[in-house]
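Reopening closed ticket. The problem is back. First fold of the pair:
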Amino acid sequence: MATDVSKRSGKGSRSSAATSGHGSGSSPSLQVPPRHTGIQGILGIHPLLLVIVGAGIVYPLIANDYWTFNLTVGLILAIACLGLLVVVGWGREISLAQAGLVGSSLYITGYMARGDKPGEAGPGLPFPVAAAVGILFVVVVSSLVALVSMRLSGVYVVVLTLSLQFLLENSLFTKEKLTGGLSAPSTPRPNFLGMGMQSDTRMYYYILAVLLVSMSLLYRYRRSRFGRSLIMVGVDKSAAAAVGVSPWMYKVAAFAIAGGLAGVAGALSAPLYRNPPGILQYISFNSLFYVSVPILAGFESIMATVGVAIFFQLIPQILLSLKINPQLLGGIGLTVGVLAGPRGMGGSVIDLFDARARAKRREAKKNIAKAQAKADSSGGGGGKPPVAKPKGSQLGAKASASAGSEKK
């Protein structure tokens, strides 16, 4: 009985020593604080995110139609850039065809939805069906590009997606019945749950709801095993294949998701603009502008990608007197994002509001300082390190030994 008690007490003492990190033979441990504390732990969501969503809901009530329309365009840009976050940030591939895919979905959806008025070209399909056709076309094209580039990597994928952009510009964008040509065909706005979307305010709320749903789905996807497998494929394809994760399957999935979000952005743009916009908004230079958004925002934060997209859309309108070119913003974003690294600006913002990240960073700094101090103490004091004998002395000793044996 006493033996059992002593065993239990010894086991308890060993576990307590391991937990505290003291005592001989104890395993190192790291005391990690809970991820969410305070209000965030109660609500399950960061209070700042609730404030941002609340501000987005209240915004049309205090802003005029001009600024409501511009912010709506920023929300559509954010949806398209979330697709690039999946490809560029998680899959670590580069796509320079996102602007062309968005424009293709816009023109196809608008054409399919037109035709109710006499003299208009188009089948006159309901908006959900017309949007499904445009989104399906973009997803299929994007998936085919991923299949073709299955054995390619690096610069070859960049060239392939850029060639797709040029192909769309010189084929689909030249069809007058899709783009409108010199005429100005009008795309009807849809009805949602019996409510007409004729006003810009209702379209704003409709597109805001689509953006929030897209963000929620991407957040869940990234935390699932499929999202973690995609990130593993992006980091090291060989290691992913070694543990049974198919790199080509997740590469196709990443391009398909990016194409789907580009299709959604284009389908929502068709009724928002009413008249098809010019093709100059969806040429290759704008694809670089799209890529700059997730690179500047970083690959860790979905909210940062949305924020940078809205900022890039609104800042030229706010500083209209300065006549800021959006391409200039894209160039600055690419430069700053590349210099900031994969975490981008979003990683810095996350560290400001994530207590667990701050605690891990402090603990890592302490461990590094301890390791350096230990290395300095072991190398600076104590006995001198053993000096290796030169090869010549060893050979001389062998020669003398052999000579002595010969004399004997």
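Second fold of the pair, where the issue appears:
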Amino acid sequence: MFDCSMKDPSTFLSGEEMTKRRTPCELNNWVPTVFNRYRESNEAKAYLRLKKGLCKQFLEEVWPLALLTKQLFGDSDQVICEPVLGNQKYDALIEDRRGDAPIQIKVEFTIAVDGYDDHLRMEVLNDKGSANAYGDISVSGTKHTGHKIDIDRSGRDRDELTSNAVRVVTKALRGKANRPYGLNHWLCVKFDDRIWVPNKDDTEAIRASVSSAKQALNLDFAKVFIVGSSGDLLWELT
């Protein structure tokens, strides 16, 4: 059990705890408790936002595993999820015992995000307490003199948001193309639909565009899923 007396954010999460085998229900009950740990202080919030230590794997692999399995398997206790740390060609194992014979699925995760821009927004959020999710970013200064990050206050119209959603998801898919995986591998792309899907009416248009882009890519996976941070969006791309 997590010791709330620990103040160093690097101690809030261990590899042993993160890779524990859980049912989808157990995993989805555990994930919010981890987020709560990092709400204890501004230091802890910054540690999570900048994906330090094991937070990177938690945000980019374990949380998406929870989102994916909740929607696919619900409360089934015949499915076991096991995050895997390391440099192998998968980030998690799913053992599906619902049929006559257990099936093991290897899942590779990736995130649809502009990584450098996202990091800069998190720096501004940590420094100022808020950051425009849509504004253009400019950086001045150097590593030695200190850099200054400015985010303008502009927004994005509906067409810009939907086109950007297609762009970042397609970019994430492209990053996994032309690599050998196999028929027992799934690919899951997580993106923040809370930001990039302005209207539910846009969902199918974005999905259609992403599906079309996928057809042009050589992806060696049995199934490809797109999962949203909201917990409400799950697409299987055909």
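Update: turned out to be a display glitch only; the data is intact. Strands lie at 79-83, 92-96, 103-111, 137-142, 146-151, 182-191, 221-228, 234-237. The first strand starts at residue 79 and ends at 83. Please close again.
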